Amino acid sequence: MSRTAVITARIDEPTLQALDALAADQERTRAWLVAKAIQRYVKEETEFRAFIKQGEDAMDRGDYLTHEEMIADIKSWKLGRKRVA
After folding, report:
1. pTM
2. I need a surface site. Which of 1, 16, 53, 75 has the fewest CB within 10 A?
3. pLDDT tens figures, 11-57
4. Has residue 5 been placed in a domain?
């Protein structure tokens, strides 16, 4: 059985009313919807941070194009040429 924890959050009245409407519409509890929202946020934020880390790692390795190199690439693409590394 997975371990769970209880958390407390303060939300404004309009958000609470919207949450209750969603819960009723989906025949779910507030707690279920909040847990799913947190799971989604954590997953998306974790993936985004990993993506940023990949870019930072690439920059640390020197694996990137300068602005000038990128402009030259775009111009060459328009002319149907490929960049020579």
Report:
1. 0.71
2. 1
3. 999 999 999 999 999 999 999 999 999 999 999 999 999 999 999 99
4. no
Helix (H) / strand (E) containing 77: helix 67-78
Q: Is residue 7 part of a domain?
A: no
Residue with tokens 């954590």: 42
**CA R_g for the chain:** 23
Tokens of 1: 């059985």
Mean per-residue pLDDT, 54-73: 94
What are the CA-CA distances from residue 60 to residues 20, 71, 73, 85 (Å)? 47, 22, 22, 19
Instruction: Tell me the CA distances in angstroms from 3 to 33, 35, 71, 79, one per residue in order.
Output: 18, 13, 52, 59
Provide the domain count of the chain.
Answer: 1
